[in-house]
Amino acid sequence: MKSIEVNGRRYGWPESPTVVVCIDGSEPDYIEQAVKAGVAPYLARITAQCSDLRADCVVPSFTNPNNLSIVTGRPPSVHGISGNYFLDPDTGEEVMMNDAKFLRAPTIFQAFQKEGAKIAIVTAKDKLRGLLGHGLTYGADGAICFSSEKSDQATLTANGIEGVVDMVGMPVPDVYSAALSEFVFAAGVKLMESRRPDITYLSTTDYIQHKHAPGTEGANAFYAMMDGHLARLDAMGAVIALTADHGMNAKHGADGKPNVIYLQDYLDEWLGAGAARVILPITDPYVVHHGALGSFATVYLPNGADMADRLRALEGIDYVESKSKACAEFELPEDRMGDLVVVSSSGVVLGTAESEHDLSGLEVPLRSHGGISEQTVPLIFNRAIDGLDPARRLRNFDAFDLALNHAQAAAAAAE
Predict the structure, then answer these.
(1) Quick one: CA dihedral 317, 32, 283, 399, positive or negative?
(2) Could you tell me if 203 and 128 are in contact, meaning their C-beta atoms sit under 8 angstroms apart?
(3) How far apart, in whole angstroms, are the C-alpha atoms of residue 85 and residue 157?
(4) Which of 99, 213, 252, 263 is the most exposed place for a label (fewest CB within 10 A)?
């Protein structure tokens, strides 16, 4: 069988159309509760009869590093995207990691397109589009890559498709809505009906997961919607892999107020104002539902300063290690991390200075992510995955490996 090597991993050719879905913020309990409530019959069937696995995502458990790990098949130490946001060592500026110039490895999509595969990528937020679609060729016979957020702006030259809104039959969704993700699934179904891509990647937004706990009415309605679209893709013969970029946890007290450790305020008190610099990799243009508060931070210290023990002593801090140790453990690029990496406990988030965070947009008690406690994610396939080493540590970035090398074989055997 034809295969392709990408970033040191070999992938089989998709004899059946392959769809990999990254459900943003989907801890396993969301799917389990939707199945239990009877609102997700398709997911109930494949989790019972096919493959319902668990995997670890990349830490920091944020959107950009995990999506890029999934589509390169490798951790951030290889592809370079260490967060949504970082301190650029070349400029000293704090910048978003949305620009493809920060990407250090090719995607699986690039390699397969070069060999003639038809590629389709639909992402909810436009912040990921440039990274996911980097290096692809567009045009009438090229790849397709667009976002729900800017679906009305898609062109044949820049996105490989036009008339997206008419094709999907939905208006452009509000960026803070469940419809932003629903558009992704609806577009995936329409593309499978009309274009039948060899490889499709669908990436949603975690708007619902930030607002609704597993098993609640809002969460179950979202997974019911998703269930219907997945069933349609399955009916068209697609091999489907479902995973997530990270989980989600409640980060508030009984009073509903966020549990926040403002690291910059502590460091300013201990070292003097501005002597240290705290970077929060969760930061992105869409902060309304999390206030730029997550459970992972990196700290730049003045020469000779040793703050590790003092930070470890703060209640709610689970992990403080040097750059070298943390980057080795979490497979991160050292040149894009500060002197220390700090991770809070499951119910706590980290901030810079309290005055820097606008929490007025938090309409419900804070739910967020970023730490080790949000690392477990689903890894579900609509085919049986057999023969895996029971000692193997599964990662969310094994999704394409298992879909193309294992689920495809199961699909072929069933025909």
Answers:
(1) positive
(2) yes
(3) 29
(4) 99
- Helix extents (H) in 215-255: 217-235
From residue 296, give the alpha-carbon distance in Å to each of 189, 273, 284, 319: 36, 22, 14, 9
- Mean pLDDT of the region 232-251: 98
Q: Which stretch of DSSP H or E encloses residue 95? A: strand 94-96
Kindly state the tokens that stand for 100.
């493809």
User: Token digits for 117?
Assistant: 């595969």
Statement: residue 152 has pLDDT above 90: yes
CA-wise closest residue to 258 among 267, 266, 249: 249
Q: Is residue 26 a contact partner of residue 378, using CB atoms and an 8 Å limit? A: yes
Considering only CA atoms, which of 409, 402, 403, 400 is closest in space to residue 110? 400
pLDDT at 288: 43
Q: How far is Cα 85 from Cα 64, in angstroms, rounded to an integer?
A: 9
Rounded CA-CA distance 347/252 in Å is 7
Residues 23, 247: contact at Cβ < 8 Å? no
